[in-house]
Amino acid sequence: MKLKLALVATTALALGGVADAQADKLTGFNAWSKVVGNTVKATVDGKQMEEYYNSNGTLKHLEGGSKISAGKWVLEGANVCLTYAPGNEKECYVIEVDGDIATFTSKTHGGFRATIVQGNPNKL
Asked: Which residues of 39-53 are buried (b: 16+ CB within 10 A; e: fewer)?
């Protein structure tokens, strides 16, 4: 009987740990609210990139340490959609944030994982 109770307790603790880990992951508006006003840094297609997302719906994109471009973002349901220049195609991503890691995933544009850096350290 003690063995059965020990197994039940161990299983409950293990499942509780999984639930806690999943509870830390944010999606949709909650995830995006952790990104807005901050910068994300990532390597995408072998190139270093940083993006700063301003609360007014604009963004600045720095690629390779020197090429800066501007764009806009909008939250559409659970997706964040980015447009980098007039006439360019809108890129929509599902976003998930776990701690200081943001994962952007798109069926049409692939995805990337980025580190969230507080504020706008490069004054983009």
From this structure: bbbbeeeeeebbbbb
